[in-house]
Amino acid sequence: MSSREENSDSEFYDACDNIEKVSDDEDFISIKPNYSSLNSETNQDVKNDSKFIPLHEELNEKMKIENDDDEDKDEEKLNLEANQDDDPFYVDENLLKNEQLTNEQKEERLKEAQEHKTIGNDLFKQEKYLEALESYTKSLRVCPLDFAKERSIFYSNRSACFFKIKDNERCVAECTKSLEFDASFVKPLLRRAECYQLMDKLDECLEDYKKLAELEPKTNSYKMRILELDARIKERNEKMKEEMMSKLKDLGNLVLKPFGLSTENFQFVQDQNTGSYSVNFKK
Q: What SMART domains does the database record attribute to this sequence (predicted)?
């Protein structure tokens, strides 16, 4: 064996002597090179390049991703808790879900909830909407989940308060929650439709009026609102289409200009039956 081969083997065994286990996982090790076996010219470069070497990069990356996901979940949880703490009208239905109550206890809790509701109604008549909200919230916090119809009414009452203080987004949320407990409850459905219209969400508003017309087919005012909303939505869509076509025309002229052409060389013809367009070229 040549002296060069002997030296290489010696360097290999020296390096092996410097292997240290850095984890209980056998797949992760740290290697400390024996700098004494390297010449002085490369010694400094190797020292600078020495680092932890994972044997399974894929596993290591997976661990990093999982840690990042855990951090994101923790942050979302903290934000949710912060929002709950900041919201004086928050109702924890999970807490109610986990309660173990007898039928007698449930009836007592319902009676208490109705008492809070009565107080809330009086406050609402006095236009004390925030105070009324507090009372309706107390109703929801004590009323067992078994009483779906009553909880629907409490949420609907809260939506009326938010409507009065012009918090349309929260009003919509409360109406939606009310309808989760009683999908045929007309008051929150109508109130949500009105909120959608104030928020210029015409499509959502139209859908709610269609549901109202199904629930109360003899009410002609719903049918009138549907016709009005249909007309407004078509008008809005036509305006949006015109704006889009104008922008496309400007873009087309920009692209065609180097070729001595413009969108005027192309004629758009609409099919009256389908509403689609065909394009004809003209010089």
A: TPR
CATH topology for the 107-186 domain:
1.25.40
**Over the chain, what is the mean pLDDT?**
78
As a whole number of angstroms, the distance between CA 85 and CA 95 comes to 15
128-133: average pLDDT? 97
Looking at the whole model, is its pTM more than 0.85? no
At 244, the pLDDT band (50, 70, 90 cuts) reads confident
Angstrom CA distances, 31 to 28, 44, 58, 212, stand at 10, 16, 20, 73
Which strand (E) or helix (H) includes residue 115?
helix 103-125
Q: What is the mean pLDDT of residues 1-25?
A: 48
pLDDT (tens digit per residue) in 191-207:
999 999 999 999 999 99
φ, ψ of residue 271 to 5 degrees: the values are -80, 120
Going by their DSSP bridges, the two strands 53-54 and 266-270 should be labelled as: unpaired
Q: For 59-86, b where at least 16 C-beta lie within 10 A, e where not — what string?
A: eeeeeeeeeeeeeeeeeeeeeeeeeeee
- Report the 10 Å Cβ neighbour count for 132: 24
Contact 252, 244 (CB under 8 A): no
Domain range annotation of the chain: 107-186
Tally of CA atoms within 13 A in the half-sphere of 129 that contains its CB: 12
Is 139 or 269 the better-scoring residue by pLDDT?
139
